[in-house]
Amino acid sequence: MSNEFRELLKKVGGGQHTKKDLTRNEAAIATHMMLMQEATPAQIGAFLIAHRIKRPTGIELAGMLDTYEKLGVTLQPLPNSDSTVTVFGLPYDGRSRTAPIIPITALLLSAAGVPVLLHGGDTMPTKYGVPLVEIWQGLGLDFTQLSAPQVQSLLEQTGFAFIYTPKHFPLACGLIPYRDQIGKRPPLATLELLWSPYRGKTHIVVGYVHPPTEAMARIALTQRGETHFTFVKGLEGSCDLRLSQTTIIAASQPDSPNGFEYLKLNPHHYNFAAKDIPLESTAQLLSQLEEVLEGKPTPMFQAALWNGGFYLWRCGVCPDMATGIQQAEALLVGGKVKAQRDAIASNMK
Questions:
Q1: In-domain check, residue 152
Q2: Phi first, then psi: what are they for 191, rounded to 5°?
Q3: Which parts of the sequence belong to the Glycosyl transferase family 3 N-terminal domain (predicted)?
Q4: Residue 36 domain boundaries
Q5: What's the CA gap between 331 and 108, in Å, rounded?
Q6: In what order do the strands lie in the sheet with 160-164?
């Protein structure tokens, strides 16, 4: 048993009136001891559920991110030091109700010259949804066998990469069984949304569900000096904009008194109002995504334009949302997004 970890556990595991928040350094130490399995299984499980009940603070998340940066894989800055890499933070336990659009969005952005980095692992509790890596495999991009240097090279050559945590950050995967055993998402799930495995300039895009997460995330990133971010209250906590209703977004804005501003994107204003695409099966999803890459005018194609238009605007490729939508359509119909997928596949061989 670790007596040091026991003291940290006692702080977060107190009752309603005795619980205490950890300092940034204490949170970093606790995360380090869990990742390195220096705490006992009983201590780790107790900490994860107690921390969830207490609710993590932005300061604590900053400390946890400090340890992820120290122990996890980190890609080096691109040769062009002015390049900003857009890092998407998505729930690791995947999607189970709505079809993910993010694979098209990521390919589209990289085809437009915006470097993109994603990360994730295999099927994970508590949702056990379709993980991103499985979708990429179905699209002909298998990131599970690449070494970290190969991922670095892929990012440099194509402007696109995926960090596969079981291979590139196995320490983090050592905590996955605890999620299944406690039956709830621990604060590690929020930590993963904010993690950036890239050392250069970043634009961190985070999907979330509960409003308190957005404020917590802003504090965590600000503590770590990250000032370029986009938080999306998207489908199932993802970065995908909704077709069925207004999507609320918190976007960093240096000229704003608070350093950010809220956007409310209503699909009705751009003639995109429709039902969100249901996730029926992985096979059907892959077929739908391939149709989008072919430029076919399907319902998912509309979702791809809605999302692509926003991110092209937000990433500075286009001056406004309407132009972004037009550019997204041109890239998809013109075959440039599909060509980008094929180029990535060629560079992985």
A1: yes
A2: -55, -40
A3: 7-67
A4: 3-54
A5: 7
A6: 160-164, 116-120, 85-89, 202-207, 229-232, 247-252, 260-265
Considering the domain boundaries, does residue 78 fall inside one? no
Transcribe 129-186 into DSSP letters.
-B-HHHHHHHTT---TT--HHHHHHHHHHHSEEEEEHHHH-HHHHTTHHHHHHH-S--
User: Would the CA dihedral through 269, 270, 275, 279 be positive or negative?
Assistant: negative
Confidence band (pLDDT; 50, 70, 90) for 314?
very high
In sign, the C-alpha dihedral spanning 116, 122, 126, 127 is positive
* CATH number of the domain enclosing 241: 3.40.1030.10
Residue at 91 is within a domain? yes
Q: pTM of the entire structure?
A: 0.96
Q: Which residues contact 268 (CB under 8 A, 6 or more apart)?
A: none
Q: What is the pLDDT of residue 316?
A: 97
pLDDT band at 82 (very low <50, low <70, confident <90, very high): confident
3-32: pLDDT as tens digits: 999 999 999 998 888 999 999 999 999 999
Domain match, 20 and 131 both: no
The letter for the amino acid at 168 is H
Q: How far apart are CA 143 and CA 326, in angstroms?
A: 31
Using the 3D structure, point to which of 12, 35, 54 is the last residue of a domain.
54
Q: What angle do CA 93, 282, 284 make, to 5 degrees?
A: 145
Instruction: Convert the pLDDT of each residue in 211-257 to its tens digit.
Output: 999 999 999 999 999 999 999 999 999 999 999 999 999 999 988 89
What is the rounded CA–CA span in Å between residue 57 and residue 51?
A: 10
- Going by C-beta distance under 8 Å and a sequence separation of 6 or more, which residues neighbour residue 284? none
